[in-house]
Write a structure and sequence with these properties.
Blueprint: H1 2-10, H2 14-21, E1 26-29, H3 43-56, E2 61-64, H4 73-77, H5 80-91, H6 104-116
Helix pairs in contact: 1-3, 3-5
Length: 117
């Protein structure tokens, strides 16, 4: 999503993406922060993702998945005020589900190893 927004920024199409997104009932942002590992977003990428979420705020249902605690999001978004504003919008009227324990992939790996042994 961030990459699409960055391309849209270069071609002056951000408003078009935001308008299209607002026509949906539900959008899923899987793996926030995006990318491999926990690499910080560019300043522009973080601002565009905030703009995207703010445009959907109280208009479109949004599901966000993440492996990070909220306290760690500032490291990814790079700006404490922007991160706090984003989290404020994402968590307002939200249902937060926290899963703990081994991941599905780890359990599957252990099952494979047990079968091989």
């Amino acid at each position: 999503m961030v990459n699409e927004l960055l391309v849209a920024q270069q071609t002056h199409q951000v408003e078009k993406i935001l308008s299209a997104a607002q026509r949906h009932h539900l959008i899923v942002l899987d793996r926030v922060p995006p990318g491999r590992g926990f690499l910080p977003l560019s300043t522009l990428g973080a601002q565009l993702l905030f703009q995207f979420c703010a445009a959907l705020y109280e208009r479109v249902a949004l599901i966000v998945t993440t492996n990070l605690k909220f306290a760690d999001w500032t490291q990814i978004f790079g700006d404490e005020r922007l991160t706090l504003a984003l989290l404020d919008r994402l968590t307002h009227k939200a249902h937060i589900l926290e899963f703990t324990g081994d991941s599905y992939r780890l359990r599957q790996q252990r099952l494979r190893q047990a079968k091989e042994a």
